[in-house]
Design goal:
The protein contains five helices and three strands, in the order ααβααββα. By secondary structure, the protein is of the alpha+beta class. The protein has a three-stranded antiparallel β-sheet with strand order 1-3-2. Strand 2 and strand 3 form a beta hairpin. It is elongated.
Length: 100
């Protein structure tokens, strides 16, 4: 059931910029500089959003010299997808509770 999903994951993906970041990271691992270029966000703003995504367990960091690369953790999104698919299947069953 959806209740087992970490609410931080749902909250983190609810922000349009964070969803854009996740979409970009789904294609490739990117550093902060790349993400600033791709999103147009200021570095401080982007860093705050990346902190939320890291704390929610959606992305992980990979230091590379003076840069920090961000990598998407696909298993988190796959688990979320499975749970939403389960909800969709339940809704499609069309169960109806009788009124007393």
């Amino acid at each position: 059931m959806l209740t087992s999903v970490d609410p931080d994951v749902i909250r983190a993906l609810g922000d349009p910029l964070r969803l854009r970041i996740v979409t970009l990271l789904a294609r490739e691992t990117l550093c902060t500089t790349h993400l600033v270029e791709e999103t147009g966000a200021r570095q401080t703003n982007l860093s705050n959003h990346m902190k939320v995504l890291r704390e929610a367990g959606i992305v992980e960091t990979e230091p590379c010299g003076r840069y920090t690369y961000y990598k998407l953790k696909p298993e988190v999104l796959a688990g979320l997808s499975e749970q939403f698919a389960g909800l969709a299947a339940s809704a499609a069953a069309g169960n109806k509770r009788a009124c007393p």
